[in-house]
Design a protein that fits this description.
The chain has helices at residues 15-24, 57-64, 79-87, 96-103, 105-114, 128-138, 229-246, 280-283, 288-296, 324-334, 363-377, and strands at residues 7-11, 30-35, 48-51, 69-72, 122-125, 142-146, 156-159, 178-182, 188-196, 202-204, 208-213, 216-222, 250-258, 264-270, 310-317, 339-342, 352-360. By secondary structure, the chain is of the alpha+beta class. A hairpin with a 2-residue loop joins strand 11 (208-213) and strand 12 (216-222).
């Protein structure tokens, strides 16, 4: 008798695909990978790897043959190509109608506004003069973002005055627009991850507080401290509503800014496993990666609740330590409960090369443990 096995095709070979593959093993799922190169993070561990250009139609068509479903490590695959796959009977999850809201900030802002979701004041601007007019209307500084292609702080500009208004338009690619937004003097940043299946089942992970430096998430605390039950429920319901309205299948991450008065506004959407959910690998009963795979295959979703009262995830960015595995000797000897994920990437300054996770009852102690381990792996043992 032949045993039925699901085959999931993942487009993109970064660490998210690597961690999806890790989650696929106990579920008995076969993974095929379309990677940018033979040495990218996931390609070094996945067995069935195709190296090719995810924007090339023929490459993607061949890759999709034999897959039960196609999903993503990133949101950059052209939507017209995904529409073609769907028209040919390939299950694409999330589908292009949903994914475009994570690809294009103009589309996202306009749709969120239409849904009545909380957003900053924004305007699509065609040139420096229109950006200046927006700044004069809402007050300086303002934020300017490229509509497509930005990540980890790239494509985001803080514009302090009209004298800087031309900066976002310098070298702007054809078809990419600039979105001007009011500057939110936020008290902190939050994130909520929800997972939705094609049959409509959905779960929400606890809201996380995130710490960003230079546009990169460096730390998450879950659950976010000092949120009232009403605030927590409202944020989780917002994430679930957006996933339902957009028809998202898989993980949806909603990044939020919280004002000093407690009100929140949406910053970004992502439709894939997300850095702010890495804590769930060791801190939740079902990780975001396990639930993403369950969702795209329309399997019943797992429990997203926490295993401990406090979980902290701290990113390891490339620093002066090149031999990360050897540095684990100190980290594990000091903290036997420490959890570490290394991404198999060459160490380069500021590059995400791994993360650490700690958990326990006391936030101060849990955070101290995570920061010590991450700093040691980055070559800053005294910080």
């Amino acid at each position: 008798m032949t045993t039925r096995r699901f085959t999931v095709g993942i487009i993109g070979g970064g660490q998210l695909a690597r961690m999806m593959y890790e989650a696929s093993i106990p579920l008995g799922i076969d993974v095929r990978l379309l990677a940018e190169g033979p040495d990218v993070s996931a390609a070094t561990v996945v067995h069935d790897v195709t190296v090719g250009d995810y924007t090339d139609p023929e490459t993607v068509r061949r890759f999709a043959t034999g897959c039960d479903v196609i999903t993503f490590d990133h949101e950059h695959v052209p939507t017209d190509l995904l529409h073609e796959l769907e028209a040919n009977g390939v299950a694409v999850r999330p589908g292009p109608e949903a994914l475009v809201h994570a690809q294009d900030k103009v589309v996202m802002r306009e749709r969120m506004t239409a849904l009545g979701a909380p957003c900053p004041v924004f305007r699509v601007v065609a040139d420096a003069a229109e950006l200046t007019a927006f700044g004069d209307d809402v007050g300086w500084p303002v934020i300017a973002k490229t509509s497509r292609g930005g990540y980890d702080g790239k494509g985001v500009f803080k514009i302090d005055s009209a004298a800087e208004a031309a900066v976002p338009f310098d070298g702007l690619r054809p078809g990419v627009r600039i979105v001007a937004e009011e500057f939110i003097d936020f008290a902190r940043e939050l994130s909520v991850l929800v997972v939705r299946s094609p049959s409509g089942q959905a779960v929400a992970y606890p809201v996380s507080e995130t710490l960003q430096q230079g546009g990169i998430c460096v730390e998450t605390i879950t659950p976010a401290p000092d949120l009232s039950d009403a605030q927590r429920i409202a944020i989780e319901q917002l994430g679930l509503r957006i996933a339902h309205e957009l028809g998202v299948v898989g993980v949806l991450a909603v990044e939020l800014m919280q004002r000093a008065d407690g009100q929140i506004v949406i910053n970004e959407l992502a439709m894939r496993p997300h850095n702010t959910g890495h804590w769930s690998i060791d801190g939740a009963h079902t990780s975001q990666f396990g639930n993403h795979l369950r969702a795209v295959l329309d399997l019943p979703l797992g429990d997203p609740t926490t295993r401990a009262p406090v979980t902290v995830m701290t990113n390891v960015l490339g620093g002066s330590v090149e031999d990360l595995p050897s540095a684990l000797l100190h980290c594990f000897a000091r903290d036997p409960k420490l959890r570490v994920e290394l991404y198999g990437k060459e160490v380069k300054p500021g590059r995400k090369v791994g993360h650490v996770t700690t958990y326990g009852n006391d936030l101060r102690d849990v955070r101290r443990r995570a920061r010590h381990a991450a700093n040691y792996l980055m070559g800053n043992p005294d910080e």
